[in-house]
Design brief:
single chain, 117 residues, mainly alpha, Cytochrome Bc1 Complex, Chain D, domain 2, two-stranded antiparallel ribbon, 5 helices, 55% helix, binds heme C
Amino acid sequence: MNKLFVVMVGVALAVSGFSVAQAGNAENGKTLFESPTFGGGTSGKTCASCHAGGEKLSADLFEREKHSVMGKEMGSVADIVNVCIEMAMKGKAIATDSDEMKDVLAYMEGLVKEKKE
Ligand code: HEC
């Protein structure tokens, strides 16, 4: 009985820890969003220079199935982030499954949500 309880708590913690890691850390994402060196940026700009408060981010950004930016089809929001890193910040694309990407996406989801409300 007691042992079973311990195992169950352990599983619950493991599962919640996993989902938090999956969802990304919005607070860290904000720091990256406001950092000129995110993605090795060299233009001196930050994501917030152009997207402060969710500017130019569509309200349905995280619901759309297809993305197109400047006439180019993109598979995911992460791909668009990489376009902005390369074109706007003059940096290098980062891995779309990296923690940094997850964190920035989590922060942007918050921005977009606030816009909708
Ligand atoms: C120099 C300005 C500039 C910077 C810096 C910039 N972006 Fe963008 N971003 C744009 C423009 C312009 C668009 C296209 C907006 C449109 O299509 O209306 C865009 C589009 C996007 C979109 C798609 C929005 C949509 O709703 O389709 C995302 C996501 C995005 N940027 C994220 C980022 C992130 C994350 C960063 C930082 C790594 C960043 N951007 C840096 C100018 C910038």
